[in-house]
Structures are given as C-alpha cells and as structure tokens.
Amino acid sequence: MNVTSLFSFTSPAVKRLLGWKQGDEEEKWAEKAVDALVKKLKKKKGAMEELEKALSCPGQPSNCVTIPRSLDGRLQVSHRKGLPHVIYCRVWRWPDLQSHHELKPLECCEFPFGSKQKEVCINPYHYKRVESPGECVPHPGTSATTAGLCC
Questions:
Q1: CA 9 from chain center: how many Å?
Q2: Paired sense of beta strands 127-129 and 103-105, if any
Q3: Which of 9, 49, 55, 146 has its CA 20 to 30 A from that of 135?
Q4: Based on the number of CB atoms within 10 Å of its own CB, is 62 exposed (0-12), middle (13-18) or buried (19 or more)?
Q5: Rounded to whole angstroms, what are the CA distances from 84 to 1, 7, 28, 48, 105?
Q6: What are 42-80's pLDDT values in tens digits?
Q7: Global pTM?
Q8: 68 by DSSP, 3-state: which?
C-alpha cells in the first residue's frame, strides 16, 4: 500500500511532515500524532517552516519548535498518552524509542522537556539518544554504578 492512498484525506502539511517519518510501524497513529502537531504549530508564525527545516536538514543548526506544555506534561494521541518530545522523536528519528529516559536534550535546546517551562521543544534534532538506565550493561569486573553508566 503506498503512502498516497493511505493518507488520501490528510492535509498537505501532514503529508509533507510524514515524508520524514522513520520506520513503517503504526502508520495511522503517526498520522494522528503529526496531524495534532500541525494544528498546534499552525497557530505559531514560522513554527511549521522551522520544523520542516529541521527535518530536511538533519545535523544543521535549527531552532526550537515548541508546543504548549499540558498540565501533566503528556499529549494524548488516539487513546494513548505520551510525552510530546518522545512521541515526535519516535516518529522522526527512532521508531524503537521506549521512554524519555532514553533521551537527553542538546545544549542548544532552550525549551527541553525537563525544564518545566510553559512550552516544550519537540524538535527531534534537539535531543540525543542515550542508553536508558534499565539497559545498562557493565563491563566485566565493574558494577554499572562504578562504571558511571547508571544513576
């Protein structure tokens, strides 16, 4: 099934953004997540363009792309709640991402999720992936704590 027929009722902006999607799992969920984001970003001047710039030029400097933080910090997409930066990093960079513990904001990010500001950055290139504490594997002869791998 090609992307065009799958997303025949999808707005052009959502279709463009889905062009950078990673992985092929959960197409409908990704479409709904991106659609919800487009609705939020259209209210902010230049936000859509900034996201498209970040997605089309990975590794190039880009600005924060922010959405308002909800009361509990989570975003609901199709009956599933998740942290917004995790949702969009999963869509555009790491489809196997499991939790926010696997992400760390880059220094250039002015609105990282952990900063508890009113806005949260969802630019997937403002986060790097790190090993989650549950996946630490110490080198033989050292514990995970002494090896500095886990908190």
A1: 24
A2: antiparallel
A3: 55
A4: buried
A5: 28, 22, 17, 16, 13
A6: 899 999 999 999 998 988 999 999 999 999 999 988 888
A7: 0.72
A8: strand
